[in-house]
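@channel sequence for tomorrow's demo:
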Amino acid sequence: MALCVPRRGRRQPRGADALDRRPGSLGLDRSGIEVVLAGIPRAATHNGGRIAFGPDGMLYIATGDAGRRAEARDPASLAGKILRVTPEGDPAPGNPYGTAVYSLGHRNVQGLAWDSRGDLWASEFGQNTWDELNLIEAGGDYGWPDHEGVADAADAIDPVAVWAPSEASPSGIAIIDDVVYMAALRGERVWLFDTAGGSAPWAVHAGEFGRVRDVAPGPDGTFWVLTNNTDGRGDRRDGDDRLLQLPLP
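structure tokens (generated this afternoon):
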């Protein structure tokens, strides 16, 4: 699997073989893209896929273990990692292993966001017991597949918060006023967590919109919510799927 972008300075064609802005258009002109980073393992599931530029200007890439569980804690593999590269795809300066790998021991990272201190937070699918919200450290090992949830193990960093998959199955996250907003698919709600600590996670809009795929900051005291009920796993509702603008709690 590779991360690709349109070639610089190339105008994309408007024909059937390109992304032409029409609903349902899935064609892509491969001659108009360039590979930023190649060699990411892929599978039918556990592919991660979230990308985001950090406050340091570097590109962060979340990968899943792609079913290669034993590779998640192996710094030589790109599976089960958070990667940090330059915009051109080279290992970012200061990475702990001198490679693209920034943190390891992940099962399937789904969301990336930074707080006002510049700290990176990540949401992650667990297996059967615990979904996780992690505070990411450079070179940190988060334990998968040997640990899931809070393990109090000397060889892994524990998550900051955990949920049963039925209540979460987390997807995208956003941080607004240093509060994490975490989309929940199976949980059908948005979880909030104050990064300053002192309170347990709490939920808003539980059961109102069905599966929630992503969240993002909005203007003037609002945030955006993207629903995901038409993928065969949710119950389709009138008008789904929808992009909603909601007031901050």
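heads up for whoever presents: The first strand starts at residue 3 and ends at 6.
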